């Protein structure tokens, strides 16, 4: 019911990203399909039916976090329908999220990342290798998100003031600083990009071998390829480098509020997970190093 109106509300009023809107769309579509399969009219949905829907998700093997995401999406959906006077009540309102054990962010040790970047600098001098190096160094060196990396345009880089303009979630702009070696590598990459005479001439910083704006799967492949050289852990996504960036800063004494600003978090609670990560690392070091541990 009025799904398209809700999605437009998320896009134009809430200013959610395309990725988030797609996730919402998928959750709502799954819910509507379940209603149709059960032969249950949308207008008659109540608290008990919603509990039955979420319980069925759990029985079908969905994780607690997946069920909680569905609860959150449908709460927002019904809240919107209430606002538009399309339903009288929100049947999901009183349903509580399932308990989920806290998962610490998976990271790659900064020593391993430093070694990897040194190795990548010694690769054959080519546009592709230079681009891959910039992808890995930007993600680890600035902590930006994958979507933010893909949206960087050449004009967003301020070499004089050593910073990059980043378009974050909900179209929020922020600057991230650059260190001297990253500036040097970016200049070299841009020179190769211009001299390579690519078929297309995208204004975006990260491009394919044909010069078109890069896409998520390409960056995933690049990161997975190079992280597999230094770690055997299963998770080797671009977001791991964001976690590694934040954890490295915290381990070296950076202020939590400063890390929050660099990451583009809306609130401090999202950043605080890294404090738990650092404590766990200290515990492990203590156990390994102390004679009575």
Describe this structure in words.
The chain is globular. It has two domains: 3-83, DNA polymerase, domain 1 (Orthogonal Bundle); 110-289, hpI Integrase, Chain A (Orthogonal Bundle). The chain is built from 13 helices and three strands, in the order αααααααβββαααααα. It has a three-stranded antiparallel β-sheet with strand order 1-2-3. The protein is mainly alpha-helical and 293 residues long. It has helices at 3-12, 18-38, 47-59, 64-83, 110-121, 127-142, 146-151, 180-195, 216-227, 238-251, 256-263, 268-271, 273-289; strands at residues 157-158, 163-167, 173-177. Helices cover 58% and strands 4% of the residues. A hairpin with a 5-residue loop joins β2 and β3 (173-177).
User: Which quaternary structure do these chains form?
Assistant: single chain
Unreliable stretches covering 5 or more consecutive residues: none
Q: Classify the beta-strand content into a percent band.
A: under 5%
Describe the sheet with the most strands: 3 strands, antiparallel
Q: Number of domains in the coordinates?
A: 2
The radius of gyration is 23 Å
Q: Please list the strands of the largest sheet in the order they lie side by side.
A: 1-2-3
Give short descriptive properties of this protein.
DNA polymerase, domain 1, 2 domains, mainly alpha, 3-stranded antiparallel β-sheet, hpI Integrase, Chain A, 293 residues, 13 helices
Question: What would a concise description of this structure say?
Answer:
The chain is 58% helix and 4% strand. The protein is mainly alpha-helical and 293 residues long.
């Amino acid at each position: 019911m009025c799904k398209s109106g809700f999605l437009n509300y998320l896009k134009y009023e809430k200013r959610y990203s395309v990725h988030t809107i797609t996730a919402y769309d998928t959750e709502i579509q799954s819910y509507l399909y379940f209603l149709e399969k059960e032969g249950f009219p949308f207008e008659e949905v109540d608290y008990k039916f919603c509990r039955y829907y979420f319980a069925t998700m759990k029985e079908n093997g969905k994780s607690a976090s997946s069920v909680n995401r569905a609860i959150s999406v449908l709460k927002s959906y019904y809240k919107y329908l209430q606002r538009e006077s399309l339903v009288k009540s929100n049947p999901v309102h009183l349903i509580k999220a399932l308990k989920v054990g806290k998962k610490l962010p998976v990271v790659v040790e900064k020593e391993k990342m430093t070694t990897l970047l040194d190795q990548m600098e010694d690769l054959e001098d080519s546009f592709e290798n230079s681009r891959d190096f910039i992808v890995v160094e930007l993600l680890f060196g600035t902590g930006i998100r994958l979507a933010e990396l893909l949206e960087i345009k050449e004009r967003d880089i301020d070499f004089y003031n050593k910073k990059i303009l980043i378009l974050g979630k909900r179209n929020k702009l922020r600057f991230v600083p650059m260190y001297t070696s990253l500036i040097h590598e970016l200049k070299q990459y841009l020179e190769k990009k211009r001299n390579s005479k690519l078929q297309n001439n995208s204004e975006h910083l990260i491009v394919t071998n044909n010069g078109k704006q890069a896409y998520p799967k390409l960056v995933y492949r690049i990161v997975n390829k190079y992280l597999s050289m230094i770690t055997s852990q299963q998770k080797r996504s671009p977001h791991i480098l964001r976690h590694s960036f934040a954890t490295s800063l915290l381990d070296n004494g950076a202020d939590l509020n400063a890390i929050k600003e660099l990451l583009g978090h809306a609130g401090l609670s999202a950043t605080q997970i890294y404090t738990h990560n650092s404590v766990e690392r200290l515990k492990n070091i203590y156990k390994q190093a102390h004679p009575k541990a």
